[in-house]
Amino acid sequence: MKKGVNVIITNEKNEVLILKRALDSNLSPSLWNLPGGKVNKKEGLNQAVVREAKEETDLKVEPLGKPFYIYHYSQTIVYAIKTRLIKGSIILNKEHSRFKWVSKNTWEKLEYTPSGLATLEKFFE
Prior knowledge:
The structure is a single chain. This protein is of the alpha+beta class. It has helices spanning 45-57, 114-124; strands at residues 2-9, 16-21, 32-33, 36-38, 60-63, 69-73, 76-87, 96-102. It has a single domain (2-124), classed as Nucleoside Triphosphate Pyrophosphohydrolase (Alpha-Beta Complex), CATH 3.90.79. The chain has 2 helices and 8 strands. The strands form 2 sheets. Strands 1, 4, 5, 6 and 7 form a 5-stranded mixed sheet that branches. Strands 3-2-8 form a 3-stranded antiparallel sheet. A hairpin with a 2-residue loop joins strand 6 (69-73) and strand 7 (76-87). The radius of gyration is 13 Å and the shape is globular.
């Protein structure tokens, strides 16, 4: 079974960073999602969280404990992990076209990937 991570990065207002997938993306084009992706072989969940956050947003983060939510689909398990922002300014990679900070009151107004939707529902409940 494959493993993936959804990275929860929050700001001082407890808003969550979400990313809009590029229009030409092979997976879920133009849908919003969290930073994250697959866990490489011989890589731990926390290592994947740090790597994916850096690759997709150029932010340095620190994982905070164990996954708070686990999403299952097809042959993949996605672990949602909260993080603390250490430093950096958001610079998106080519996989994404926009970023946005969403709150408990604003997040539901957008269209998400299935794992992004499930993770945010759990985070904001």
